[in-house]
Design brief:
- The chain has 379 residues and is mainly alpha-helical.
- It has one domain.
- It is 67% helix and 3% strand.
- It contains 13 helices and two strands; from the N terminus they run αααααααααααααββ.
- Helix 7 packs antiparallel against helix 8 and helix 11 runs antiparallel to helix 12.
- The protein is extended.
- It starts with a helix and ends in an 11-residue tail after the last strand.
């Protein structure tokens, strides 16, 4: 039996080798035939002519002079100042156009939702509530796992790493439950395109914010969880008051960032031009800066474990750093260094418009395909 199997194996190997030999491509033949000998001789005679050699040398010199030297892409001070001035001027020039663009957005929303704008907000809140509800059900069903996770809060390094892994796994389960209960249920149904984009955008902001909160809980173990001796098991050593402070303010800053990002993205859908969104983004960035400064200045002191730098000095250093970042972002310095400006907020509208109408202030109202606004189009 074994000899028969070996015979069949050898036969199959030989057949495979023959197939490979037949499948191998033949050597590539020359694509063009060799030129005639007299043509080659005439070419060599022309190239050996002194006049031809002089003419070719002159052409090489002209090409070398015409080629610009490679730049090192390092902007000068005048380029930086020119870029900042141009950015500020274009941003200020976009401010007078904002009322017309807001009027156009209001008309589009009223035509699309027939005056029931509160229903959109209610829909967002309902699905966010559904996410919290499914998360609560998952938390109740994993009560035994949560008790096991709390029992792993020990002081040895191995147990602390194991407890951190269990907490991160629990946070991932809670985040998944929130996603399924909110956006997962929403995408099951068929919605109008504009409504789907608005609701999914703000559900994404809520999901990211909730995810950050759950991960921060796993790392900081804030006092809101009411766990005994939580200070000993935090990944980042800090007091209960500081852990609670950074847990709250980190969630606030992430929530505002996501809300502003989604809103500026949706403004492009309603036809806001790039500079108008940049102007509104500067205002949103100023609010973000104030929230970050509030988190810095309202944070509790280090207590007994004082650092080498005083609490007030560190607050001033962080203030200067955050203010410098905001100025770098808002003054247009990214353009001077060739960075892509506002890449996350400058997308083109997601729907192509087939026409439009003129409002009382002269703003062109795009009429989108695949929604109710197509009935309002005329040439």
């Amino acid at each position: 039996m074994v000899a028969c199997c070996f015979t069949w194996i050898r036969l199959l190997c030989r057949c495979g080798i023959l197939l490979l030999l037949f499948a191998m491509p033949a050597p590539l033949q020359a694509q063009t035939a060799a030129p005639a000998t007299d043509k080659v001789d005439r070419l060599l005679e022309l190239l050996s002519d002194p006049e031809i050699k002089t003419w070719l040398a002159d052409q090489n010199k002209k090409n070398a002079l015409a080629t610009p030297p490679a730049s090192n892409n390092v902007p000068t001070l005048s380029d930086i100042l020119r870029s900042i001035r141009g950015h500020i001027q274009s941003t200020l020039a976009a401010v007078p156009r904002l009322p017309a663009q807001f009027e156009r957005m209001w008309i589009i929303l009223n035509l699309e939702f027939q005056g029931r704008l509160a229903g959109v907000l209610t829909l967002v809140l309902v699905f966010i509530t559904g996410g919290f509800g499914l998360e609560w059900l998952a938390r109740q069903s994993l009560k035994r796992y949560r008790d096991t996770m709390l029992s792993e809060l020990r002081s040895t390094p191995h147990d602390r790493v194991k407890a951190l892994g269990l907490r991160l796994l629990f946070a991932a389960i809670m985040i998944g439950s929130f996603v399924v209960g909110s956006a997962g249920v929403f995408i099951i149904f068929d919605w109008p395109p504009l409504l789907r984009e608005i609701v999914l955008g703000y559900l994404t902001a809520a999901i990211v914010t909730r995810g950050v909160m759950m991960v921060t809980r796993a790392l900081l173990i804030p006092p809101q969880l009411q766990l005994p001796e939580a200070e000993k098991f935090r990944v980042l050593p800090m007091t209960d008051s500081r852990a609670g402070h950074w847990y709250v303010w980190f969630a606030i800053n992430v929530g505002w960032f996501m809300f502003a990002s989604i809103t500026l993205n949706l403004l492009g859908t309603f036809g806001f031009d790039q500079q108008s969104r940049v102007a509104l983004g500067a205002v949103a960035g100023l609010v973000q800066l104030l929230l970050l400064l509030a988190a810095v200045w309202l944070r509790p002191g280090a207590g007994e474990a004082e650092s080498r730098i005083s609490h007030k000095a560190l607050s001033w250093l962080l203030t200067v750093f955050l203010l410098a970042l905001w100025l770098f972002r808002g003054s247009g310095l990214w353009a001077a260094f060739g960075w892509p400006p506002h890449s996350s907020f400058c997308r083109r509208p997601s729907w192509r418009h087939t026409g439009g109408r003129i409002s009382s202030c002269g703003a062109r109202i795009p009429v989108w395909k695949e929604n109710r606004l197509r009935r309002c189009w005329w040439p």
